[in-house]
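Please produce the structure of this protein holding manganese (II) ion.
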Amino acid sequence: MVNRMKELPEDALKKYQRAGKIAHDVRESMKKIVHEGMRIIDICEKTESMIKEKGGRPAFPCNVSVNEIAAHYTSPPKDKRTIPERSLVKVDLGVHIDGYIADTAVTVCLNPELENLVSTAEAALEKAVEALRPWLFTSRFGSAVEKTIKSRGFKPISNLTGHLISRYSVHAGKSLPNVFHISTSRTSLGEIYGVEPFVTLADGAGKIRSSSDAYIYRLLRHKSQKDVYAKQLADYIEKNFGSLPFAERWLKGCVPHDRFDAAFSQLLLSKRFMAYPVFVEANGKPVAQAEHTVLIVKDGCLVLT
Ligand code: MN
Ligand code: MN
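Below is the modeled complex.
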């Protein structure tokens, strides 16, 4: 492929493309694997191990969000939850190569009555990809996505947005809302975005609320830790995941088993790391999502996933 980007070095582009190809392949495989009754932890672990087998690293824990759960559910250790009958299953995965991240998601529809909801999320993503180009007002982008969703009789989730991606950062500041909003923010040539419309039914609230559950964490700035096991755990996280999100499942064996819970709680309490709450549709309605990672190029955008 011709590199028309002056803003993105050739080496970085190659790594984004490699991450994007792996994310694409894993997403397409998982689409065929997810079925009713399957253990959610098996979906998470299968996704993450496929990413590694293909030479990438997970950029964040695989999210498996069912029905009214819009985002941020990943299995805790020994999770017993399974995929319910006739559900909507959003599999959202991230791959990084040397910190260059590709973020993608698909909704697997196990309920024939919700097929239009899923195809609307896909159509909205298609519209978003069509609209994206350098110097585009994010407000115009939001309007176009919102119109696509409403014209099909559904509702966008107004408080979940696409986001700028940068090296080792999944949410690098700028956002791409999926509804009209007042803003002077614009896209720029060479930027990488995760583009992700979320759609719910017409009688949904059209927004999410945070639940009290959280299974995904991220290390915050450095703090000295007195407790030897808390320090050992923080050092392990810093070395292996840096500033990227992680799951408790990923920490097996890094401190003695009987010391883990105390060390983990201490790090949370001392605000050494933050927890991402699970997001739920505020009226409890099902949510569909579709996501690609794109690069803004001269005449539009290039889908990497
Ligand atoms: Mn995602
Ligand atoms: Mn994303």
